[in-house]
Write a structure and sequence with these properties.
This protein is mostly helical. It is built from four helices and two strands; from the N terminus they run H-E-H-E-H-H. The chain has one domain.
Length: about 120
């Protein structure tokens, strides 16, 4: 491996780390359900160090967002496994709901009314 090329790559990744990533509660992140979830990527970072430089570059390149689980009653944060579970469950629920809506919308009108 060319060390100079690796260092330039590392420098580029470091620059990406300094760029801001939009952030919002997970329930406000819009999902493109038209693809059936085939285009969805969830990257989870730890509390102490967050995302790796490469993961943040991926998020920025794909116009990704930082999603977080809001907490209450003085709770500072959830551990990464708990937060990921909440977010992934919500994604599955929303994708399932969208799939059911697509199936319902795809049925002919007379099938929705029932046999006459």
């Amino acid at each position: 491996m060319n060390d100079k090329k690796f260092l330039l790559s590392q420098d580029l990744l470091e620059e990406y780390c300094s760029l801001p990533l939009s952030s919002r509660p997970y329930s406000e992140v819009e999902l493109d359900t038209s693809s059936g979830g085939r285009e969805l990527v969830v990257v989870v970072g730890g509390e102490a160090h967050g995302l790796s430089a490469a993961a943040k570059k991926l998020a920025l390149d794909r116009l990704g967002e930082r999603a977080f689980v809001p907490t209450r009653n003085g709770v500072d944060s959830l551990n990464v496994a708990s937060a990921a579970s909440v977010i992934l469950f919500d994604i599955a629920r929303r994708m399932d709901q969208a799939s059911k809506e697509r199936s319902r919308d795809a049925k002919p009108e007379e099938d929705r009314r029932g046999a006459v």
